Amino acid sequence: MKFTPRRHATSPTLVLAISATLALTLAGCSSPSGETASGSGDTLTVWFPGNSQPEIDLVTDTLVPQFEKENDVDVEVTFVDWGDLSPKLNAAFAAGTAPDVFGHGPAAAADFVANDRVLALDDDVAQLPQADQDDLADSLVGGQVDGTQYLLPLSITGQLVVYRADLLEDAGVDPATITTWEDARAAAEKLTVREGDKVTQAGLLLGSAAIQRSLNFNALIAGEGGSLMSADGSEVEFDSPEGEKALQFFTDLYQGPDAVANGLGNDYLNSPPAQQPLVTGDAAMTVLTSQAAAAIVAANPDLELGVLPALSFEEPAAFGGAGAGLFINADSKAADLSWKFIEFMTSAQISTEYAEGTGTIPIRASAVDSDYVKNSPILQAFLAEVPNYVPNPNVAKWTQIRDVLDTYLEQALNGVATPAEALKSAAAEATSIIGG
Predict the structure, then answer these.
(1) Angle, in degrees to the nearest 10, between helices 398-413 and 419-435
(2) What is the topology classification, in CATH, of domain 2-155+323-363?
(3) What CATH number has the domain spanning 158-320+395-435?
């Protein structure tokens, strides 16, 4: 095995994983005629996204050596920072040197497909034992474009409201009574501490940093019974009564004399455990990923946290679904070996080992019986809500549309535009992108 480290950056390792931007220059890339793509049949090149040291250590020191030994092959592994991933893939595709297998988020899948960059995996998945297909069913959907499998996720991600049990108890709030967003807001009013007009302890925080805004808005609009895009990606649907209600709720958390949140725009979600608002006491309830919640518990075993189920307005919904996963380069000369590697990474034992090593939600339903899940009430709560997770639209040009929407959500959250104005402007620009 050859391991090539890349420059480590501070980009988020999971939330941005689901929504990492795919540069449009992919549309103009193609392998030069006669150029030999990576892979020779006994050598495999693989790029993993991110810079998480636990993941790097697990993949390079344990999992890949096991695959090499079992298949008598050499695997060249490179970890690439999320911020660098799309530009480096663009350059590699243009040069005909793209890896055989590469990781990326589901948000990029439709654009890869539109530009003929990845292989369809339906036939490979169909050859798996039916028990494996059933076991993977919930996660496989997140790797499909127009019903065809292109990506096999390595994890499932989810974002739920996590709370400090002691703070709720002190405020006389029973978490069992919080099943809707309105309930959460009412509880937050009891939990918020102010000094004059300043919120010193937030009752409820939703991620309001870049990209996180759109993830939370997705959960809120889904809870209202609405959606961001039509199923075929031909129309935006967030400029709607459901969207306006969802954004008004989001904005009211941060704006006005009755605000229950503070730190607008701060990226608390990706802060180290010691700096998490739940740990410092700066917040009583925050939206977190399973990884962030598990990291807090590991670093502060005496701190009692609880997890609320997916909340609703009209129906329960939380942002989540397939996390980053693996694609096979359409130009790979080692397609069969590439599939063997993906099959290995998503097998029952290895996928659970990967989830445990990275602190993520396992991709297989059977993992509920693993010690990893059984020993973690936090993980059990996140895994139980998988059916209520709502992913980003897996349609072409979504990452461009998301960035536009995110910009206008920021305006609404900062009071620069009303929710109706922000969504109308975002819809106009997004419609232009769709038609462009």
Answers:
(1) 160
(2) D-Maltodextrin-Binding Protein; domain 2 (3.40.190)
(3) 3.40.190.10
